[in-house]
Amino acid sequence: MKNLFNYDGAVFQLLMKFCSACGLGLMWTICSLPLFTIGASTTALYAVSIKLVRGTEGTSIVRQFLHAFRTNFRQATQLWLIVFGAGAFLAADCYILYHLRQSSAGTAAVVWTLLFAVVLAAVVLYSIVFTFLFPMLAYFDNDNRSMLRNSFFVGARYLFCTIAVFGIHAAFLYVTINLFAPLLLFGEGLSAWASSYLLSNVLLAVSGEKRGAETEDSGDEP
Questions:
Q1: Under 8 Å between Cβ of 40 and 80
Q2: pTM for this predicted structure
Q3: Is the pLDDT of residue 153 over 90?
């Protein structure tokens, strides 16, 4: 029982990872403030969170976060602008079609309802891609088109993981809005840390690696 609270004990190690996840969340918030950098920040967040889960994070999560941020900045920003534009387009479609459906009757209402259902299906597909896109970018090296395509196929194949990760982020968002607003500063780090316990296994399976045989560097730089 005493060993649990030693430096190498389970409780102390869990507390250290919790604090590291909070620190990552704060860094994500700061680096995302320009808004167009959200993609790079999210990629860096998952790059370190997955290492945190695997116990290969090294000694400086700040240096690793900034290294991943710089390394993936260009591609992550391009992908972020793509998914942001697609998300804005789908949101506008949903808003317009919903109000057209509410203000229509008869045949027109049926048509708007069918179109609304199609857009909602597109939103589901978009959510699958968005959930896996930046974790995939943090783990794999590929072009933008392949990254988008593979994110969908992996997310669809591991649908339970996709739903669980989406639910984790939704839960933290709900708590932030309704119960504890300061969670906005570091909540994304905790969400990514919790999600990485699921994502790590999926990424290992997709890459064909075996647990215990990962090649990530455990030093300060990834």
A1: yes
A2: 0.86
A3: yes
- pLDDT interval class at 49 (50, 70, 90): very high
Determine the pLDDT at residue 185.
Answer: 87
Q: Coil, strand or helix: which one is 138?
A: helix
For CA atoms 171, 173, 178, 183, the dihedral sign is: positive
152: nearest Cα among 117, 118, 127? 127
Phi, psi (rounded to 5 degrees) for 32: -95, -5
Q: What is the DSSP letter of 158?
A: T
- Residue 7: other Cβ atoms inside 10 A: 7
Question: Could you give the dihedral angle defined by the CA atoms of residues 204, 206, 210 and 213, in that order, rounded to the nearest 10 degrees?
Answer: -60
What separation in angstroms does the CA of 219 have from each of 63, 71, 92, 114, 216? 10, 17, 45, 54, 9
